Amino acid sequence: MENILVNHASELEAQVAARTAELRETIGELEVFSYSVSHDLRSPLRAMQGFAQLVLKENADKLDPLSLRYLEGINHSAARMDALIADVLTYARLVRSDIKLQPINLDEFVPPDRLHLPAAAGARRRDRDSRPLADRIGQRGPT
What are the angstrom distances between the C-alpha of 58 and each of 45, 62, 74, 75? Predict the structure, then answer.
């Protein structure tokens, strides 16, 4: 009976090791994919943003207000998309890193002036709870 349990435990450990290796390989492939796609998206995005800025710089005095607003919208949207792409790259790097769980004091994330906000206009006055927030287990983000 003991041999059966030992053999079964060994088989389970081998399965876990094999699946862990497969998972690591898949994560690596996803990382390469997200990195590649992110960089492939950034090039045309920066070209669009550059052309829109060039048109604004050289022709702002000749454009009607609606056209100016469109070009500013292109620049704003391109900057937002660039930030999203940067977030994908950050996520890819985060996935690659080791997870280090630790207690996190949530009070660190709430500015002190936000702890005692006045009641909203027209809302019932409520007692404010100034007790510290509970710690949670998590991983600190990049600093």
Answer: 20, 9, 16, 15
Question: Taking CA 44 as the corner, what is the angle to CA 41 and CA 48, rounded to the nearest 5 degrees?
Answer: 130
Determine the pLDDT at residue 136. 85
Domains in the chain, number: 1
Flag whether 113 is in a domain. no
The C-alpha angle 18, 22, 27, rounded to 5 degrees, equals 145
Q: What's the mean per-residue pLDDT of the chain?
A: 82
**Looking at residue 44, which CATH number applies to its domain?**
1.10.287.130
Asked, for residue 123, whether it belongs to a domain, the answer is no
How many residues does this entry show for the chain? 143
Residue type at 79 in one-letter notation: A
Q: Does residue 124 fall inside a structural domain?
A: no
Is the pLDDT at 124 greater than 90? The verdict is no
